[in-house]
Structure formats: structure tokens, C-alpha cells
Design goal:
The chain is an alpha/beta fold. It has seven helices and ten strands. The protein has a single domain, classed as Rossmann fold, CATH 3.40.50. The structure holds 6-phosphogluconic acid (6PG).
């Protein structure tokens, strides 16, 4: 397994540069295909990248935006990743993109998984992937100790799985490892010393203990203090 580690002078520079790289990747994908899937994480780290990326000059009407995972809360909840996308990515030029939902009103995440996956399946593979990572080495909602982690890491995993984990305050719906790892262009965004050390500590560990290892091969890791 090999990846590239890119260190930036500060978080603002990282956000600008990474947004440019993602936009470049999308343009490249759209030069070869009619449509391209951009999969992005929620959480706190990607907001500044979205603020820059949303203004990128590319044909957003041919882009499908997909979350890597969603917290099962209503889309107006402050912890909703869908809300983050609507407020910070699907604005400006990127408002022309289409959102592939990871949320279904009135259903629990177990019931919604199959229907939402059927819609996503027709658009795969992911052309451009951005992932986050937690200090516990989780990525998307593939958490160490999660109830269905083994299924989510399996080569035969379905596209989406509900996931409950001690480290996650609410049930989650997550893309599984084969879907994430199968992305054509992969980026991981991490900030701070704690996460850099976690990434180093992940070396050589099994994905059950360090789920990030399931998706790192060929990825570019973007890091700033
Ligand atoms: O919904 C989520 O929480 C995510 O998609 C998750 O995988 C996230 O990327 C990491 O937990 C890092 O989160 P931060 O960027 O907030 O540290």
C-alpha cells in the first residue's frame, strides 16, 4: 500500500490548493465521461475546501455530489452532513450539481440503505473522492468497534451500510470500503498533529483496527497543522 503525503504551510493554503486539485480532477473526469461523481465527507474539516471549490469554473451540471457518510439526523439538524453540503458546497457555480441523497425522510437508516444505494449504483465508480479521518483512524463511518465494520470492509460489501459505533453519537449510513477504495482519484484531508500521528500509528495495522488503511492505496493525503 502506498500513498503520497502533502504538507501545507497552513489550513487556508491547503484549502485553496486542495480545492484547485479537486476541480482539476473533476475537469479531467468530465473530459472523458458524460457525468462524474464527486464524493465528499462531512464533519468540520472540509468546510473551507467547499467554500473555495463551489466557485470552481467547470460544468457542474454534469457532476453528481455524494456524501461518503451521513449522520442519521434531519437535514436541518446542525450535525447533518447534507446541511453542510447545501450551505457550503452546493452554492455559487456548484449549485448546478446534482445531489445523490444519503437521507430519506420518515425512514430509519436500515430501511433507507437499499433504496438509496440503488440510485447511487447507477452512477459509480466515484470519479473524485475526498475523505476525512478521525483521530481513532475511522474514515467515512467505518469506525473501529462499529457493529457492522467487518461487513463494511468486506470485498463483497453492499454499496451502503447502516453503522452504529461507540465513537458516533447517532446512527450513520456509510459508503463501504470497496466503493470508497474503488474511486478513480482519492484525496484525504487531515488537520492537526493528533491526526498526523494517528495516520503514522495506522501503518501496518489491519483495517479492523485502522479502517483508514482500507482506502489509502494510491491516495493523496493533504495535511496542515
Ligand atoms: O460525518 C462525519 O463525521 C464524517 O464524514 C467523518 O468520517 C469525518 O470525516 C471524520 O470524523 C473527521 O471529522 P472532522 O473533520 O470533523 O475531524
Amino acid at each position: 500500500m502506498s500513498y503520497t503525503f502533502l504538507e501545507y504551510p497552513d489550513r487556508d493554503m491547503l484549502a485553496i490548493d486542495l480545492a484547485n486539485q479537486l476541480a482539476g480532477d473533476l475537469r479531467e473526469a468530465l473530459a472523458h465521461e458524460d457525468r462524474a461523481v464527486l464524493a465528499v465527507p462531512g464533519g468540520t474539516s472540509p468546510g473551507p475546501v467547499f467554500d473555495d471549490l463551489c466557485a470552481a469554473d467547470l460544468d457542474w451540471s454534469r457532476v453528481d455530489v455524494l456524501l461518503t457518510d451521513e449522520r442519521w439526523v434531519a437535514p436541518d439538524h446542525e450535525r447533518s452532513n447534507t446541511r453542510l453540503l447545501r450551505e457550503r458546497l452546493l452554492v455559487d457555480r456548484a449549485a448546478a450539481a446534482q445531489l445523490l441523497p444519503l437521507w430519506a425522510e420518515g425512514q430509519d437508516c436500515d430501511a433507507a440503505a437499499e433504496t438509496l444505494a440503488a440510485r447511487i449504483e447507477t452512477e459509480l465508480p466515484i470519479a473524485v473522492l475526498l475523505l476525512g479521518m478521525g483521530a481513532d483512524m475511522h474514515t467515512a463511518s467505518l469506525f473501529p468497534g462499529a457493529d457492522r465494520l467487518a461487513e463494511g470492509l468486506s470485498a463483497r460489501a453492499p454499496i451502503l451500510l447502516p453503522m452504529r459505533a461507540p465513537g458516533a453519537p447517532e446512527p450513520r449510513l456509510t459508503l463501504t470500503a470497496p466503493v470508497l477504495d474503488g474511486a478513480l482519484r482519492k484525496h484525504v484531508l487531515i488537520f492537526g498533529e493528533e491526526k498526523r500521528q494517528a495516520l503514522e500509528a495506522a501503518r501496518g495495522k489491519a483495517p479492523e483496527d485502522a479502517p483508514i488503511n482500507a482506502v489509502l492505496d494510491g491516495a493523496k493525503i493533504h495535511w496542515a497543522k
